[in-house]
Amino acid sequence: MAKQSWEEKQVSLGGAIIAGVITLVVGFFVGINWSNFAPHFLPYLGVQTRTAHDWSALDEVYNALQTNFDGEIDQNLLIEGAKKGMTDALGDVYTSYMSPEEARDYEDVLHGNIGAGVGIEMALREGYVRVVRVLPDNPAIRAGVKAGDIIYKVDGEEVYDQTTEQISNKLRGDAGTDVILTVVRDGKELDFKMTREEINNVSAYVTYDGNTAIITVTRFDTDTGTLVQSIVNKEFKDHKITKVILDLRNNGGGYVLAAKDLVSLWLDGDIVLIQKGARLADTTAYANRNQATLADIPTVVLVNGSTASASEIVAGALKDHNKATILGETTFGKGVVQTLYNLSAGSLLKVTTAHWYTPNGDSINENGIKPDIEVERTYDDINHSRDPQLDAAKKL
After folding, report:
1. Are the CB atoms for 290 and 268 separated by under 8 Å?
2. Which residue has the higher pLDDT, 243 or 56?
3. Is 14 helix (H, G, I), strand (E, B) or coil?
4. How far apart are CA 123 and CA 141, in angstroms?
5. Neighbour-count burial for 271-282, b at 16+ CB within 10 Å, e otherwise
6. Which are the contacts of 247, defined by CB distance < 8 A and separation ≥ 6?
7. I want to staple 236 with a disulfide (CB 3.0 to 4.6 A). Which of 74, 147, 172, 241 is the partner?
8. For 212-228, b where at least 16 C-beta lie within 10 A, e where not — what string?
9. DSSP 3-state assignment of 214?
């Protein structure tokens, strides 16, 4: 009996020695290659990697400026410029660094807290930032601004080569203050002087046409999905709704979770999107369960060239699961995911971290979602309050 006990201990000790040797070998191999492993491994644990870099080339530029520049040097401004330059050098229009002030403006727009403005919606169309919609009973429509106008200047400053976010920031301001917007229409410059007013900018609302409910979603705020769910649950039964038109035209996106909440009115636990990234694990997002009160209601989704990001997620999911007919024009084609990182002093970094795919595995990035039924709505239609897309949707 004693001999058997010793043999068992011998086997255990031998295994421990072998395991120890393997651990040492693996540890040594990983140790000498840690710089290669870390960036790919640590993100799975939610750890941000820090890599040592040689910034002597930047120091060389700074020292030369400090020594030779004929003027005052604000070190903070140089650092802010370096941060912006670093993100801009990536060549990705969706990755950007925002100063604390820009970050506050971005968050305000994302949540619809736009304050005072002139009441226009704009988007990048045909190579220019254009007015895509003029909100009713607001300064812009009263001044004569029209859909299709190319935004050229704000208060005399040329902005035609800036982003929609940058232009929006310039158009906003304190209520009662004036702003001059210069647009290009039919090759001619037109100036419009307007007084800013408080803008009511809800993210979603519902109107009714008989037994048809028209759900208009202008952006995906944090509570947009639950807001629409509440309206549907409270009002649709009383209106005896037999058809839904979901209007996602000019919706530039927002929070993906809000899009998932909205699409859960039609999908019950089904795949909403598939997310793939070079540095993050592939993930699949599913619709919420037991909320699909519209699953059997005939639905038409209206889209156009300014339907982007989270709104494309909704359209793509409903299309792939055969829960809706997509009508209108090919969408923008923004199939990438941005993650927001809060930095020091209130600054913000918006980074493209992954690409997303529809439930069928299709990438819409730079391609967009093609409608099942193509119907164009021209700027002339918009400016004369004609809506052939909505008219076509009502007839289906």
Report:
1. yes
2. 243
3. helix
4. 17
5. bbbbbbbeeeee
6. 214, 215, 216, 217, 302, 390
7. 241
8. bbbbbbbbbbebbbebb
9. strand
274 vs 260: CA distance, rounded Å: 12
pTM of the model: 0.76
Q: Amino acid identity, residue 304?
A: N
Which structure tokens are listed for 257?
Answer: 């979770």
Residue with tokens 């769910």: 229
CA gap 251, 75 in Å, rounded: 39
Euclidean distance between CA atoms 190 and 181, whole angstroms? 8
Structure tokens at 247: 């209007």
CA distance 298 to 334: 27
The secondary structure of 243-264, three-state, reads EEEEECCCCCCECHHHHHHHHC
**Neighbouring-strand partners of residue 178:** 195
Q: Is the pLDDT of residue 13 over 50?
A: no
Yes or no: say if 74 and 185 are a contact pair by the CB < 8 Å rule: no
The string of pLDDT tens digits covering residues 67-98 is: 999 999 999 999 999 999 999 999 998 899 99
**Which two tokens mark 95?**
């990755």
Which token pair is 234?
Answer: 């409270």
Distance, in Å, from the CA atom of 228 to the CA atom of 333, rounded to the nearest integer, reads 25
Residue partners of 197: CB distance under 8 A and separation at least 6: 116, 117, 118, 119, 138, 139, 175
Residue 14 has pLDDT above 60, yes or no: no
Closest CA to 339 of 81, 86, 94: 94
Tokens standing for residue 251: 């919706």
Per residue in 261-305, pLDDT (tens digit) is 999 999 999 999 999 998 878 999 999 999 999 999 999 999 999
Beta strands 204-209; 373-374: pairing state? unpaired
Mean pLDDT within 137-158: 94
